[in-house]
Amino acid sequence: MSVQTKPDPSQTISSFQAWVLGARPKTLPAAAAPVLIGCAVAFAEGGFRWLPALITLLAALLLQIGANLANDYFDFIKGADQGERLGPTRVTQSGLLAPQTVRTGMWITFVLAAFCGIYLAWVSGWWIIVIGILAILAAIAYTGGPFPYGYKGLGEIFVFLFFGLAAVGGTYYAQTQTISWLAVLSSFPVGLMICAILVINNLRDLDNDRKSNKNTLAVKFGKHWTQQEFIAFLALAYLIVFLMGISALASPWILISWLSLPFIFPLSHSVIHDSGKKLNKTLAGMGQLTLLFSLLYSIGLILAVYFPIG
Fold first, then answer.
1. Which phi-psi region, left, alpha or beta, contains residue 179 (left: φ > 0; alpha: ψ -120 to 50)?
2. Three-state DSSP class for residue 172
3. Is the pLDDT of residue 9 over 60?
4. Is residue 34 a contact partner of residue 59, using CB atoms and an 8 Å limit?
5. CA neighbor of 18 nearest in space, from 78, 83, 101, 80
6. Cα(57)–Cα(140) distance, rounded to whole angstroms?
7. Which of 3, 47, 159, 304 could form a disulfide with 176 if both were Cys (CB 3.0 to 4.6 A apart)?
8. What confidence tens digit (pLDDT) does each residue in 200-255 have?
9. CB 251 within 8 A of CB 308
């Protein structure tokens, strides 16, 4: 286990500020984006219900915060947070919060998410419980447990499954008690974009992860391959929307999500040319792009209800 670092007294912050730091608010758009799309698909197909929608959003945010705290705690326990951090301050490694305190906060957050899941199961069916349990286990197992899949190069697969298919499909199911092809297909682009967020994170941390034996795909295949992975994820996300929009799979209105396309160019430039802490700004920008894309996609689905084309 790594040695806990004492916080700099000149930079001491309050306990509340430490918890906010540990929750990593800049990651929350990635949790909200697929819920937004799931709600829009439900609205487009006549199944939207506002209270399950709000509870699903709250559950998604709590799961993301719980995952952040779990990542903070387990990376410290496993010694992955060593030396100078390139990303945001980790509250455990920096000594702002004790490891046991972070672990307790993690479990409290997951329990609150579970209560949301109980309500959603009551109004929609027990499948929500299955999705919720799997989501909590995935959040913990990313860096914790006997097989931390984030250390084994499996992060992108699980992010796609849970931030794409499970998040969009689960949000839709919570309101409609069924699933549709539009919900499934709509989960692909946002899942790929959230994978692109993870790619930037892994690219930034490549050298430190290699030193701490955290074998992400970036560590396994190197910087150039990871840069190509990022571009491939974005290209595929926009291509899927295009193919859906020009076919009978969805309304052409979803193509307004392409209005977000210009924002990928400065992000791609940064991924190719920048490294280290410079990628923190890129990481935040990719989160904002994901939320913007999801908002525009959702608006397109809603416009299709009032102004059908074809």
1. beta
2. helix
3. no
4. no
5. 101
6. 20
7. 47
8. 999 999 998 898 888 999 999 999 999 999 999 999 999 999 999 999 899 999 99
9. yes
188 close to 240: Cβ distance less than 8 angstroms: yes
Query: For residues 50 and 310, what is the distance between their CA atoms, to the nearest angstrom?
Result: 29
Kindly report the average pLDDT of the chain as a whole number.
92
Write down the pTM of the prediction.
Answer: 0.92
- Residue 76's H or E segment, with its range, is helix 50-77
From the list 203, 255, 259, 265, the residue with the least C-alpha distance to 234 is 265
Among 139, 110, 126, smallest CA distance to 170 is for: 126
Whole-number Cα distances in Å, 190 to 133, 161, 162, 284:
22, 11, 11, 16
pLDDT of residue 10: 37
What is d(CA 207, CA 239) in angstroms, rounded to the nearest whole number? 32
Structural domain boundaries in the chain: 14-305
How much is the pLDDT for 7?
46
Indicate whether 148 pLDDT > 70.
yes
287 with 29: CB under 8 angstroms? yes
Alpha carbon distances (Å) from 158 to 138, 142, 151, 182, 191: 8, 9, 12, 21, 10
